[in-house]
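Pilot study result, target chain (120 residues):
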Amino acid sequence: MKFITQFGIILAISFIGEILNRTIPLPIPASIYGMTILFTALCTGVIKLSAVKETGKLLITMMPLMFIPPAVGLIESWDVMQEFIIAIIVISVISTVLVMAATGHITQFIMKHKGKEEKR
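Predicted structure:
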């Protein structure tokens, strides 16, 4: 029963994200709205972590299964992708390096400022 309740909370927030996606004229996916709402609710204490923790862990363990359909789709569209493979590889490498660099800089920034706050 605990999993059903926790999954219901996550689904309700996802549904609110879908509603916001349909009503707000911005090119933001509904899942981003939902994750932002859930993150804000967890940070403010509106939703306790214990209210969604076990189901969140379960969904994370199932996440690799969610990549199988897109991977099959890529394999099936190999004929179309073959002519663009160099561009796809270059874009993938550049975007991966940029994301890693941005993540590193943001992490260092947060750690530096967190250290200053702890000294106070």
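One observation from the pilot: The mean pLDDT is 92. A full batch analysis is planned for the follow-on phase.
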